[in-house]
Each structure stands twice: as structure tokens, then as C-alpha cells.
Design a protein that fits this description.
This protein is α+β, with helices and mostly antiparallel strands. Helix content is 21%, strand content 31%. Pathway: Protein modification; protein glycosylation.
Length: 435
């Protein structure tokens, strides 16, 4: 009986998994939300309601719940993970730092909210994703010129930031007019790491320090180097959001009006709701997720894909690229998709033309070199999942019976040979029969 129950459980898990995250439906649906306290469920309800309204199934659990698990029988139980538990020292159940990182390595997405005096566990998870924090856990982002006024007047740790990343695919096409309220810790990213992006940065006058103690030396983290919110897109296209503030997602900050110090413009509502909503759409693959299908190549004038090509053949190459809109696949339109005809190095590099309906195509002549080539597309663009396509094809030289019988360029040499023979024959006749 126990074996039957186990088998049924495995089948149910496989069925649930097949109906959720898949290449044909890349938007995450099952999300585990880990909390320090269930009070966060109500204090951050607007953010959670936004996710539910878009079809997400949220499961709330305390971070120290002894029944916690991210996978069972080799199958992941969730498609996304939200950790709103900055002070937890140790997760319950089978979840730990390694299992969270394995979750991301599997291609699934993660949101982590770090905060002042966060535990080493949460800071280490964020650090493993590519950001760096100051050694002082009480350090906060402070700004004496870009702080928020009104009901929060005088608190220079409450920053009103409008230094957003310039990417429509990450933050949406609609501009965020109002500044975003932020109160928490800043972090830095390695500029040489192209996988980590600063989405919300501090102003040039900001610095990171402990607000409860006097500065004894110059701050090590200052200005726009301070990232308030960062995102990571891993090489496996998993996406991670790292926020230095849990309050950033709170109902209080989402509903609050805001006026930036030094500005006469007051907004009735901060930009937090639009910011976290649009950012969560990108994190959970409602935008910027690409797929390539129907990769084809053939000789010019033909339709069937050959087993190999001959040098100097004319060929045509095409591929279809689509972007997930959160509901359906829409044609992706760009002018920077390139294909390489590659053997050790690219012999041919062509920018693909598009019909703006998803089809990309080009044509070129096979280079005068034989061996095993590849059609390669390595497409990486800010905010979009990367495309890596490769298809091998052999290229042969001319067979002995495929060369031209007489070459036009060689006619002078042919003439010299025949004239030499005629001259020799004439010389022999004259020499033999002359007296």
C-alpha cells in the first residue's frame, strides 16, 4: 500500500510539474514565499495581490517551518521563490543555502529582500548571486540631498531615488514618473560581471554607513556605485532580484506620497508599486523571454536541407524568434541578430534580415575552405534571455569530375602549348626535307 501511495505521489508531482513551467509556457506559476513573520503577508499585501491577479499561485510559509522543501522525489515543487525573511539564521526542513542556489541553477527564479542587520545566511545567498555588502551589518544607504520629505521629513536614510536602469524590457515601456522610496542597505556589483545589473541606484551624494555612529573615516561605498536594487540573469536564463530593503515592497511605501528634497514636485503616490510590479514581471519571465524555432538552411533555389555543402555553394539560412508576452508568443523584432558560419573562427558573419513577423533570414556563399562548419547564433541583449544555437554541417571540396574542363583564364597557356607543338612539327619537317 505504501508503495502504491509513493508511486501515485510521484505521478501527481510529475503531472503538476508538466502543467507549470515549460519552454512553451515559461511564466512561473507556483511560488513559495518564505516569511520571518506572517504579519508580512498583510503588511505587503499589495505586492502579493499583484502577483495573484496575474495568475500566480502563492504558498506562504514561515522560513523556519520544519516541513519546508523545494523538491521531492527529484522534482521541484515550485517555479519561483521569494525570501522575505531577512533575519532568519537557519531555514527549516530541507532548505539551506545550497538548496536555494541549486534552485537557481535549475533555471528557476528568486527574489531576495535583504535589510539592515540581516542574518549572515541571507547576505551569503545574495553574495553568491553576485553582489557585495559592507562588513558592518548595521550600515545603511544615506543621502542628505535626495531624501524624501513630507511625513518622513528629517530621516535621511529614507531615500527617494529615480536613478533607474535604462531598459524598457526590464521596467516596462511606461516611464516611472515618481521616485521610489527606499530604506535599507546598499550593495555593490562587480562592473566586470555582465550578468549583474543595477536596476535602482543611489544618487552621487549618497554613501553607506552606520547612521547610529559617527564617521571616523571616508565611506568605502559612495555615489552611484551604491546599488539599491539589482537583478541577475544567469547563463541558464534564471533570474534573481536582490533588494536591499524589505520595506520597498510594503503597502506603506506603495501607497505613500513622495517629495524629493530640493524638488517642488510632490507626487500623491510613490513609484514603488509600478517599480516592483514591472520588475516582478521581468523576474518571472513575463517579458524578455525569447525562443528560437524552425532553424533551416538549404541551397539557394531548393527547400530540402542537404547532408553537406560544397565549397562556393550559394545557401540560405533562416530562423524564427519569438518573445513571450506573459500570455502568448509574439514575434520578436530586432536588427542585431547575427549568424556565424564557423570553423575554429567565423568565416562568414551575417546580420539577419527580418520580416518583422518573427522570421530572420540571410543568404551567402560557402567559403572556399572544407571541413566541419557550424551555423552559430549567440544572441545576448540587455534584459532578454540569451539564445545559443549551433548546427553542424560538413563542407567538401570539388570532386575530380566537378572541375571545369577548360578554364577561361588558362587559354593563353593552352595556346602556348599548342603553338609549341605546331612549331616543333614545322621545324622537324623543314629539318628533314630541306637540302
Amino acid at each position: 500500500m505504501a508503495k502504491i501511495i509513493t508511486i501515485l505521489t510521484i505521478l501527481l508531482l510529475n503531472l503538476t510539474h508538466s502543467l507549470s513551467f515549460s519552454p512553451e509556457n515559461p511564466t512561473n506559476r507556483r511560488i513559495l514565499v518564505l516569511l520571518d513573520d506572517f504579519a508580512i503577508k498583510s503588511s505587503h499585501s499589495l505586492f502579493f495581490d499583484s502577483l495573484r491577479s496575474r495568475g500566480y499561485q502563492l504558498e506562504f510559509k514561515l522560513a523556519d517551518d520544519s516541513q519546508l522543501a523545494l523538491q521531492r522525489y527529484g522534482q521541484f515543487l515550485y517555479d519561483g521563490l521569494i525570501i522575505f525573511a531577512p533575519y532568519i539564521d537557519r531555514f527549516g526542513g530541507s532548505i539551506n543555502q545550497a538548496s536555494v542556489l541549486e534552485f537557481v541553477d535549475s533555471g528557476r527564479d528568486l527574489i531576495v529582500a535583504v535589510d539592515v542587520n540581516s542574518s549572515d545566511l541571507i547576505r551569503e545567498i545574495a553574495t553568491e548571486c553576485g553582489v557585495e555588502f559592507e562588513d558592518d551589518p548595521a550600515a545603511m544607504a544615506i543621502d542628505h540631498t535626495s531624501y524624501a520629505l513630507s511625513e518622513f521629513e528629517g530621516d535621511h536614510t529614507l531615500i527617494a531615488s529615480d536613478d533607474f536602469i535604462g531598459s524598457d524590457v526590464i521596467l516596462g515601456t511606461k516611464k516611472i514618473e515618481a521616485p521610489v522610496l527606499f530604506q535599507g542597505i546598499g550593495h555593490s556589483v562587480n562592473p566586470s560581471n555582465s550578468l549583474v545589473l543595477q536596476v535602482l541606484s543611489a544618487s552621487p551624494s549618497a554613501y553607506s554607513a552606520n547612521p547610529m555612529s559617527k564617521l571616523s573615516s571616508a565611506p568605502t561605498l559612495t555615489g552611484p556605485r551604491i546599488s539599491l536594487v539589482s537583478v541577475v540573469q544567469a547563463r541558464n536564463n534564471a533570474r534573481v532580484l536582490i533588494s536591499g530593503s524589505l520595506k520597498l515592497f510594503s503597502d506603506r511605501f506603495l501607497r505613500s506620497g513622495v517629495q524629493k528634497a530640493g524638488s517642488s514636485t510632490r507626487y500623491d503616490k510613490s513609484g514603488n508599486e509600478q517599480f516592483v510590479t514591472e520588475l516582478s514581471k521581468w523576474i518571472f519571465h513575463e517579458r524578455g523571454h525569447l525562443k528560437a524555432v524552425n532553424v533551416r538552411h538549404h541551397k539557394a533555389g531548393q527547400t530540402d536541407e542537404p547532408a553537406l555543402y560544397r565549397i562556393t555553394d550559394d545557401l540560405e539560412y533562416s530562423v524564427e524568434i519569438y518573445e513571450w508576452s506573459g500570455v502568448s508568443w509574439e514575434p520578436y523584432v530586432a536588427n542585431d541578430v547575427q549568424v556565424q558560419f564557423y570553423m575554429m573562427s567565423p568565416y562568414v558573419l551575417k546580420t539577419l534580415s527580418t520580416d518583422e513577423k518573427g522570421l530572420y533570414y540571410t543568404s551567402f556563399k560557402v567559403p572556399d575552405a572544407y571541413g566541419v562548419f557550424q551555423f552559430k547564433i549567440e544572441y545576448q541583449r540587455l534584459g532578454y534571455t540569451s539564445l545559443s544555437l549551433a548546427k553542424q554541417i560538413p563542407v567538401r571540396h570539388f570532386r575530380h569530375n566537378e572541375f571545369e574542363r577548360f578554364l577561361t583564364a588558362a587559354y593563353p597557356y593552352y595556346g602556348s602549348c599548342f603553338s609549341m607543338m605546331v612549331g616543333f612539327f614545322a621545324f622537324a619537317l623543314v629539318h628533314l626535307y630541306s637540302k
